[in-house]
Design brief:
Elements: H1 17-29, H2 46-55, E1 61-64, H3 70-86, E2 91-95, H4 108-120, E3 125-130, E4 140-145
Pfam families: Smr
Protein name: Smr domain-containing protein
């Protein structure tokens, strides 16, 4: 059907009625390709539905706490959560890191931020959880706002 050549630009293809018919059949049977990811099967749990839907798109805003002390991080998170809520954002991302470089060699900021969110987030958040892998996984926290 084709001749081999040293350069791709010199490739030639022979046309045939059989190939044309085959290609036409293939393209007629191909379904439309969606523009966006489709969420997995929905469940009856409201939090699960919301979390799944929001995890498929980018967050409205994000903050990176790498290199911050515990106190700096908590102050930044408090301001960030309130600002996002006041701007009517649907979702946001807090990047805490995985704790590989901390003195305790554990995710100190993640633990402290989660505690702050558990104690203070109810007024602003419908829920929060570990971020989807493409947004940092265990090194980030995904927020869904009320």
């Amino acid at each position: 059907m084709s001749r081999k050549s040293s350069t791709p630009s010199s490739l030639t293809f022979e046309e045939s009625d059989q190939n044309d018919a085959l290609m036409k059949q293939i393209f007629e049977n191909v379904k439309d390709v969606p523009d966006e990811e489709t969420p997995p099967e929905q469940t009856s749990n409201k939090k699960s539905r919301s979390s799944t839907r929001d995890s498929l798109k980018r967050p409205d805003d994000e903050i990176d706490l790498h290199g911050k002390t515990r106190d700096e991080a908590i102050k930044m998170v408090q301001k960030f959560v309130i600002d996002c809520y006041q701007k009517n954002f649907r979702s946001a991302l807090i990047i805490t890191g995985k704790g590989h470089h901390s003195a305790e060699n554990a995710p100190v900021l993640k633990r402290e931020v989660r505690l702050w969110l558990e104690r203070n987030g109810d007024a602003y958040l419908s829920d929060f959880q570990e971020a989807p892998p493409r947004f940092g996984g265990s090194g980030a926290i995904w927020l869904n706002f009320k």
